[in-house]
Amino acid sequence: MDLIFECALFILGLVFGSFLNVCISRIPRDLSIITPGSQCPTCGASIRWHDNIPVLSWVLLRGRCRDCRDRVSLRYPAVELLTATLFTACYVWFGPTWLTVKFCIFSFLLVGLLFMDAETGLLPREFTYPGIVLGLAFSLIAPAASSGTQFFLHAYGAHLSTAQVSLVDSAIGALAGAGFFFAASGLYLLIRKRQGMGTGDFALIAMSGAFLGLTLTLLVIFLAPVIATVYALIRMARHGSHAGNAKTSLGEMLQSWEVPFGVFISASSLAAVFFGGAVWQWYLSFF
Ligand SMILES: [Zn+2]
After folding, report:
1. How does DSSP classify residue 62?
2. Contact indicator for 205, 178 with CB cutoff of 8 Å
3. How far apart are CA 182 and CA 73, in angstroms?
4. pLDDT reported for residue 231
5. How much distance in Å is there from the Cα of 261 to the middle of ligand 1?
6. From ligand 1's centre to the CA of 66, what distance in Å?
7. In which band, very low, low, confident or very high, does the pLDDT at 256 lie, cut at 50, 70 and 90?
8. How far away, in angstroms, is 97 Cα from ligand 1 center?
9. How far, rounded to the nearest angstrom, does the alpha carbon of residue 86 sit from its chain's CA centroid?
10. Cα–chain center distance at 80
11. How many Å apart are CA 267 and CA 281, to the nearest integer?
12. How far is the CA of 67 from the centre of ligand 1 (A)?
């Protein structure tokens, strides 16, 4: 029975991934996601339905447009496979519960935002704002395990139902995430006189906070800058070896580098969904 659900979610993920590709290509350019139908970005030819089957068509056409033979980005099958894998993983992790539905929606939004930020540097509010609302709404029927808030509320004698605690936790997660990065960005502006993060980043971390609740959001706040720094160091090492110039300091690198920080927030949030609970348990086992 589980296998049937897993296969169904994989196929559903492919279909949603295919739709996500349309969103990624069009929303940052303010184009309609409904009309016209799928077109080749190079020659503008309409894509036939049988050339529009997720992953399969891309493989059969060897990553080229049937009409003009121009390359079709690897992003198309990658987004489809990633979405399908994440949908299936949600079911494997959370079983036939509302958590699976909640985290499938969250994964869909995160994959979309990750690729939009990577390609255009934009985190469209068409995704983040409804995401915040959905995160808060789903906290009522699918609480993220956040013992911290529960403990705190009970310690202060608040008599709230599980759903109410979960909603408070979701709201605190959103505010804490956005608040932390807003403060960090303000500090950066004061020191470096440059804008480090934008409104899109704050909306994205607020969305993650609403879906994840406070405890897992703390992991994202910690993890995202770590991955971003590792990425910057790798880029710096490669840049240095190519140019034969070892003088480029990390500071200069970070200063000249336009950080697609939304990519790292999205990736960290996905990691938190599946491994956040285990990481917290491991961390708390030291106390
Ligand atoms: Zn074409």
Report:
1. T
2. yes
3. 34
4. 86
5. 32
6. 7
7. low
8. 43
9. 11
10. 15
11. 21
12. 5
